[in-house]
Here is the input.
Amino acid sequence: MSYARFGSGGSDVYVFLNARGFLDCCSCILQEREWVYNEDSFLGYWEDVEPIIQNQFKTTQEMLDHLRIHQEAGDLICQDTIDELIEDQEENDQWIVEYNESRKDSSQT
Ligand SMILES: [Zn+2]
Here is the structure.
């Protein structure tokens, strides 16, 4: 489920529980990117430039800390986003641990 979408309620972040086992600040705007043009393919892509900003978190607390950095940078984070993350904190943190544990098991066998 998503906790925030770009533009929804003025949100500057897109935060959701990624099915791959982490909380995701998707396309985090704190991350500087530069357009890299590939002459061979006539295509380009956005490449993250240093410093690399972590935007995937294994705990709700880390995501809340990350959102605080957004707020300090002047980005709009809806109060609903914070409230809903805290409301789901126990459930999400437990699911993330269990999900990553189960993947660890399956990769060893
Ligand atoms: Zn972010």
Notes: The first strand starts at residue 2 and ends at 4. The mean pLDDT is 94. Residues 46 and 87 are 35 Å apart (CA to CA). The longest helix spans residues 89-108.
